[in-house]
Design a protein that fits this description.
With 484 residues, the chain is α+β, with helices and mostly antiparallel strands. Helices cover 36% and strands 17% of the residues. The chain has 3 domains: 193 residues, Aspartate Aminotransferase, domain 2 (3-Layer(aba) Sandwich), CATH 3.40.640.10; 100 residues, Aspartate Aminotransferase, domain 1, CATH 3.90.1150.150; 79 residues, Alpha-Beta Complex (Ornithine Decarboxylase, Chain A, domain 4), CATH 3.90.100. The protein contains 14 helices and 21 strands. The strands form 6 sheets. A 7-stranded mixed sheet has the order 1-10-9-8-6-2-3, sandwiched between helices. Strands 11-13-15-14 form a 4-stranded antiparallel sheet. Helix 4 crosses helix 9. It is globular. The chain starts with 6 loop residues before the first helix and ends with a strand. The mean pLDDT is 96.
């Protein structure tokens, strides 16, 4: 296919040139009614592109024209059977993967390191999760990936499961042994679904890990906005194998995604796909060079440790994404949370911090001068006179699943202080951030390990998504009267 084209973008530009008189949504009428303050910031062109399904611009959930062409070009570039543009983020793609492969009451095997959107998809589908515990790198305090051995052991105990949902790479760019994980799922006749949110850039440079697409996953979802130069909320869902019912996926997306998709979002996806096809390798070569420059410069500074390709062990970490820059600050006497605050005060904004590290993304928008600015700030940090080091506590094994997430979510709940919840059953999703992985899911029994982990993360400065914070106390939602 002609990857130099951007059919949706071209069609939108052609439509704008017609200067049609608008009597349709959105209510700003191509910027005519937009607040003056916003027009000054964004300019007229931004509002021109914020269209709805007007003549000639196709329909996302019934794509037969230029959107279908744009998605077909993306599928050709990624070498898959079909690609869907997502405007509700990767969450929508995760939900669609689950809905298209698992019916109510059926089992789905998922990594305990899955994003909270996986639990949301399980709630919506009515499926029953079976959790596999991920490995943990104690040196850096980072949850990594599933091991093939642990996945196969879980599958053998749950031969009736319909699908396996694997989340890799993790936030820090550690890719699991994705080939073996996919092969194991297929060996037992299960769908291999991969949440590759942090890997949309993988196909565009040989220095990156290979995508799960390359290894034959059945479906792969990617957050284009995480690493590609597109807008927040834009993602891609790929059907890779013939085993997947594409119509079921399309209909699932029509149910869970907005019926008023942003043409700005979709146009970005179309143009960025073209950019990656024509210039991806050279753009990423430059970004990787800058990331390596950063690792080299920071490694020369006392007190800092840098994660690099030496983290690869061939089991739970089979490859490393070079654009992820993880800086361990333990030797300086800082927690990652405190060090992020120090960086913010000195003009540096990062992706995230945890108890032991700070994580930065190097993308095609960064320059060597950015690294120079970062290094100057790092040089300012004074080592704290303390021998105490913050350490990430081990991530607790999933508690007993007393009710299915869907059943639990439809029960009444009450709010309890976390210390009073041992033996009770969680109603909602509770995900300490970082690592942003649900420690409690609807229908899961709350045990002492989970309580201790949540309290520790809250005390150390982590954000507890799905919980209620009140002073120095934290509360969670539990099923009313629900006990093991």
């Amino acid at each position: 296919m002609d990857q130099s084209r951007a059919p949706l973008y071209e069609a939108v530009k052609k439509y704008i040139k017609k200067e049609m008189v608008p009597f349709h949504m959105p209510g700003h009428s191509q910027g005519r009614g937009a607040p003056v303050s916003l027009k000054r910031i964004f300019g007229k062109e931004f509002f021109d592109f914020d269209l709805t399904e007007v003549s000639g611009l196709d329909y996302l959930h019934h794509a037969r024209g230029v959107i279908k062409e744009a998605e077909a070009l993306a599928a050709d570039l990624y070498k898959v059977k079909r690609t869907f543009f997502l405007v509700n983020g990767t969450t929508a793609g995760v939900h669609a993967m689950i809905l298209a492969t698992c019916k109510e009451g059926e089992k789905i095997i998922v990594g305990r390191n899955s994003h909270r959107s996986v639990i949301g998809g399980i709630i919506v589908s009515g499926a029953n999760p079976v959790f596999v515990h991920p490995a943990f790198n104690e040196d850096y305090g980072i949850i990594t990936n599933l091991t093939p051995e642990d996945l196969e052991e879980t599958i053998k105990k749950n031969r009736d499961a319909k699908a396996v949902l694997i989340t890799t790479p993790n936030y820090y760019g550690f890719q699991g042994n994705i080939k073996k994980l996919i092969d194991i799922a297929h060996k037992y006749g299960m769908y291999a679904l991969v949440d590759e949110a942090h890997g949309a850039h993988f196909p565009f440079n040989e220095k990156f890990p290979k995508s799960a697409i390359y290894y034959g996953a059945d479906m792969v979802v990617q957050s284009a906005h995480k690493t590609l130069p597109t807008l927040t909320q834009t993602s891609l869902l790929h059907i890779v194998s013939d085993k997947i019912n594409a119509d079921a996926v399309e209909q699932s997306l029509a149910v869970i995604e907005t019926s008023s998709p942003s043409y700005i979002f979709m146009t970005f996806l179309d143009v960025v796909r073209r950019e990656m096809a024509l210039h991806g390798k050279e753009l990423w070569d430059r970004a990787i060079e800058i990331a390596e420059y950063a690792r080299e410069k920071i490694s020369e500074l006392p007190g800092y440790r840098i994660v690099d390709e030496n983290i690869v062990n061939g089991n739970d970490i089979s490859a490393f994404d070079p654009i992820k820059l993880t800086i361990n600050v333990e030797d300086l006497g800082f927690s990652g949370f405190a060090f992020e605050s120090f960086l913010n005060k000195n003009g540096i904004e990062i992706e995230l911090s945890d108890l032991q590290n700070v994580l930065l993304f190097i993308t095609i928008g960064n320059r060597k001068s950015d690294i120079d600015s970062l290094v100057k700030v790092l040089e300012k940090a004074e080592k704290k006179k303390t021998k105490k080091r913050e350490k990430m506590p081990p991530f607790p094994v999933a508690g007993k699943q007393v009710f299915s997430p869907n059943d639990a979510f439809n029960m009444d709940y009450e709010i309890k202080e976390i210390s009073e919840t041992e033996g009770l059953v969680s109603w909602g999703i509770v995900a300490p951030y970082p690592p942003g992985i649900p420690i409690l899911a609807p229908g899961m029994e709350i045990d002492s390990d989970a309580i201790s982990f949540i309290k520790t993360m809250y005390k150390k400065g982590g954000m507890i998504q799905g919980a209620i914070e009140d002073g120095n106390k934290i509360y969670v939602r539990v099923i009313r009267g629900g006990r093991k």
